[in-house]
């Protein structure tokens, strides 16, 4: 077995090798992961024009998004640089009886090489919770834009720097919030992102790449700030209803733990 490395790559990115257990336990087997998936299931059909297009899922992780897209009838290429994550996704997809056979193609590759290895151009790209794990998220958005077909859509989800400041303050980390020392270091098994992103940055970077923000929502607007987590299925259902009600309303979406965007690359003639 190869030794687990928790180092950043030369580009300053954090591949999730060695993090499968920690990531699946602390996110997807926990209420926050369930809520994230429930919100994506609710929002993606509203925010995207889904017509069974070919999709590139960049930094696909454990493969939930790829599976969801395949179930909706899309042909998915899931790109992921981490061997561990990709193997987990392949095994899980293989065992899931609901997935159409060969609907998902796997590519072990980081975002930075996709213009060569999977140039598309793609009518639909999903890139969820990846930019905040990169040394240079701004250049990554330029690369995603190059991969998009004219008229194509990018579903981009980023870890919200402004919400991270707010939650640090709520937890009593006032000095940290005031000095804006919010980013994680990517050391060991820590899951605090190294490059949290603000809405202002997404606005600037999208404009710089000629991408139009078509829709935006906050994911987990309330959950992280609750003093008492829901204790019963009925309370969970009420929280989900609350999240759904306010996720696209100003000012609430702005403090979502994650920000979810639909970015459009204009047709050449637009
Ligand atoms: C927080 S996980 C998100 C996984 C999945 N998209 C989701 O929403 O659950 C971040 C993923 O980005 C991957 N990653 C790190 N650096 C990357 C890069 N340069 N290109 C593509 N993916 C990268 C990691 O290996 C990890 O699987």
Describe this protein's structure.
The protein has a single domain (20-264), classed as 3-Layer(aba) Sandwich (Rossmann fold). The protein contains ten helices and seven strands. The mean pLDDT is 92. With 270 residues, it is an alpha/beta fold. The protein has a seven-stranded mixed β-sheet, with helices on both faces. Catalyzes the methylation of 5-carboxymethoxyuridine (cmo5U) to form 5-methoxycarbonylmethoxyuridine (mcmo5U) at position 34 in tRNAs. This is tRNA 5-carboxymethoxyuridine methyltransferase. Its EC number is 2.1.1.-.
The computed structural class is: alpha/beta
Question: Hetero groups bound?
Answer: S-adenosylmethionine
Low-pLDDT segments: none
- Number of domains as seen in the coordinates: 1
Key descriptive features of the protein:
alpha/beta; single chain; globular; Rossmann fold; 18% strand; 270 residues; binds S-adenosylmethionine; seven-stranded mixed β-sheet; 10 helices; 38% helix
List the helices and strands and how they pair.
Layout: H1 20-28, H2 31-47, E1 54-58, H3 64-71, E2 75-79, H4 83-95, E3 104-107, H5 114-117, E4 122-128, H6 137-147, E5 148-159, H7 161-170, H8 174-179, H9 199-208, E6 212-219, H10 233-246, E7 258-264
Parallel strand pairs: 1-2, 1-4, 2-3, 4-5
Antiparallel strand pairs: 5-7, 6-7
The structure holds S-adenosylmethionine (SAM).
Residues 13-16, 58-61, 64-65, 80-82, 85, 110-112, 128-130, 133-134 line the site of S-adenosylmethionine.
């Amino acid at each position: 077995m190869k030794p687990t490395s928790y180092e950043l790559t030369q580009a300053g990115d954090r591949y999730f090798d060695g993090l499968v257990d920690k990531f699946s336990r602390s996110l997807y087997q926990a209420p926050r992961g369930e809520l994230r998936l429930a919100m994506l299931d609710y929002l993606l059909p509203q925010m995207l024009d889904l017509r069974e297009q070919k999709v590139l899922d960049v930094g696909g992780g454990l493969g939930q998004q790829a599976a969801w897209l395949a179930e909706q009838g899309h042909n998915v290429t899931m790109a992921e640089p981490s061997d561990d994550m990709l193997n987990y996704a392949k095994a899980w997809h293989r065992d899931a009886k609901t997935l159409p056979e060969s609907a998902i193609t796997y590519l072990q590759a980081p975002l930075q090489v996709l213009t060569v290895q999977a140039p598309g151009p793609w009518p639909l790209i999903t890139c969820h919770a990846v930019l905040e794990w990169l040394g240079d998220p701004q250049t990554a958005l330029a690369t995603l834009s190059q991969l998009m077909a004219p008229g194509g859509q990018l579903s981009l989800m980023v870890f919200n720097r402004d919400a991270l400041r707010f939650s640090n303050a709520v937890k009593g980390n006032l000095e940290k919030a005031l000095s804006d020392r919010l980013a994680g270091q990517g050391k060991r098994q820590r899951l605090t992102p190294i490059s949290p992103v603000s809405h202002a940055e997404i606005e600037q970077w999208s404009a710089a790449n000629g991408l139009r923000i078509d829709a935006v929502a906050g994911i987990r607007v309330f959950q992280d700030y609750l003093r008492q987590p829901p204790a019963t299925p009925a309370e969970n259902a009420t929280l989900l209803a609350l999240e759904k009600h306010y996720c696209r309303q100003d000012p609430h979406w702005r403090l979502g733990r994650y920000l979810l965007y639909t970015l459009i690359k204009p047709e050449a003639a637009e």
